[in-house]
Design a protein that fits this description.
By secondary structure, the protein is α+β, with helices and mostly antiparallel strands. The protein has seven helices and eleven strands. A hairpin with a 5-residue loop joins strand 6 and strand 7 (92-98).
């Protein structure tokens, strides 16, 4: 497990048997504990670490899970698998996603295309909140629970927030629909609240007490059944204004 990952020289697209060569020479756009992501034209190729058994033990992206996500889900703002990668022995070794240009990437900082959450408009957040809610409702309908969403899961494109990395999402058949729904509603709330939290940290500058207050607000918002509606009501009156202004105003109310 501690050995350096060995990249395949070539991979094969399962859908049409097209060969993609020179993997190590492609632009690397992401990396994590479970794999490395490369850009190939408009696609992102995620080459996975570990063998099949270890992926299953750690609830990572198994072959069965990827087939289900690919065939059963049609998500708007969560980047889902679109194809499967095989090595030259026909062994599942990764998957394909749409490759979105992350305007908030540190690689773009200092360039004209760099964009932070606060640079978007309030109406961008309103639209994203509806589409993310649709996505999480679909996950619930298909009995998938969203897991392990963290800072690295956030991508900001021209039309605002998207989520990547479904590797630890779970297909569950041993939970009630209500339980799955509750978990996904909380996670959907968390995604929005945490995005605002990250921007509050940047703009407002908080001490340890303020940090604790922000974290408590995220926790409270995640568990609230009315969070989304309250947020949209707040934003409706300033839809065409920069999100930066709303974030600062909100932070001043939370941090006292």
């Amino acid at each position: 497990m501690g050995r350096k990952m060995v990249l395949p020289e070539k991979v094969i697209l399962r859908s049409n048997l097209k060969v993609i060569s020179g993997i190590s020479k492609l632009e690397k756009v992401g990396a994590g504990h479970d794999g490395i992501v490369f850009r190939f034209n408009d696609n992102a190729l995620k080459i996975l670490k570990y063998d099949i058994n270890l992926r299953r033990q750690r609830n990572l992206m198994t072959f069965e899970k990827i087939l289900y996500f690919q065939d059963e889900l049609n998500l708007k703002r969560i980047i889902q698998p679109r194809d499967i990668l095989l090595d030259f022995e026909g062994v599942y070794s990764g998957y394909v996603m749409d490759c979105l240009d992350n305007l908030a990437s540190s690689k773009k900082e200092g360039t004209s295309s760099y964009k932070r959450l606060g640079d978007f408009l309030c109406e961008d957040l309103i639209e994203a909140s509806y589409e993310l809610e649709d996505d999480f409702n679909e996950l619930t309908e298909k009995r998938v629970v969203a897991k392990d969403i963290n800072r690295g899961s956030y991508i900001y494109t021209d039309n605002f927030l998207h989520l990547c990395d479904m590797d630890k999402y779970l297909k569950v058949d041993n939970k009630t629909t209500l339980s799955v729904s509750d978990e996904n509603k909380k996670m959907c709330n968390f995604v929005i609240a945490k995005a605002l939290y990250y921007e509050m940290q940047k703009l407002y500058g908080v001490d340890k007490t303020g940090e604790k207050q922000l974290n408590n607000w995220v926790k409270k918002s995640s568990n609230s059944r009315t969070f989304m509606q309250e947020l949209r009501t707040d934003l409706a009156g300033c839809a065409d204004e920069p999100l930066h202004d709303y974030v600062l105003s909100k932070a001043k109310k939370i941090v006292r």
